[in-house]
Amino acid sequence: DAGVTQSPTHLIKTRGQQVTLRCSPKSGHDTVSWYQQALGQGPQFIFQYYEEEERQRGNFPDRFSGHQFPNYSSELNVNALLLGDSALYLCASSGLQGIHEQYFGPGTRLTVT
Amino acid sequence: SQQGEEDPQALSIQEGENATMNCSYKTSINNLQWYRQNSGRGLVHLILIRSNEREKHSGRLRVTLDTSKKSSSLLITASRAADTASYFCATVHGSGNTGKLIFGQGTTLQVKP
User: Fold this and answer.
1) Cβ B48–A100 below 8 Å, yes or no?
2) B20-35 mean pLDDT
3) For chains A and B, what is the number of CB pairs under 8 angstroms?
4) B97 pLDDT more than 60
5) What residue in A sits closest to B4 (Cα-Cα)?
6) What DSSP string runs through chain A?
């Protein structure tokens, strides 16, 4: 049973560019959440998708957007990249509408230069 | 802003010793979870304790929850070098919550062989 997968593993972008990160949830899970983790910090909640809709959003600007597909996979898009967007982006999936423990992918390390 | 505060920020012990990490939070919770992260990669769920529970065990892990003090502790007994990692507490709030996790800053544990 495959766990949560994310692609790509690493990414280097330039300020002002746009980036798309991808996540496939664990089999049987229908809820996907995205987190941003800066170096030395705990993860911060970006948003959560359920039934192809954004259900809850953290304190992130509109430059951060997402999508969930019918097969429950998800994308995170970040526009107009800033140096401060450099971080590890983690995807987590869960079942039962997300109220139980979440299963995290290995993350995508984004570096903005 | 992050809800939890963890103490200590860093902990170094010898193999075989016990490790205790503490987590405090500010507002009432639905449940509290502990996660482990190795070398800045994905988080691994360790244990979940609900607001009406006071103690849970899982193998060498023991978690306590004191809702009157808004605090939790994670005890790892008979530590091993493989336990070296960062440990995060994460809280879930609200009875109908969608499972948004609010993480603390984490405790970095080093277990020396």
Assistant:
1) yes
2) 93
3) 76
4) no
5) A42
6) ----EEE-SEEEE-TT--EEEEEEPPTT--EEEEEEE-TTS--EEEEEEETTEEEEE-S--TTEEEEE-TTS-EEEEE-S--GGG-EEEEEEEESGGGTS--EE---EEEEE-
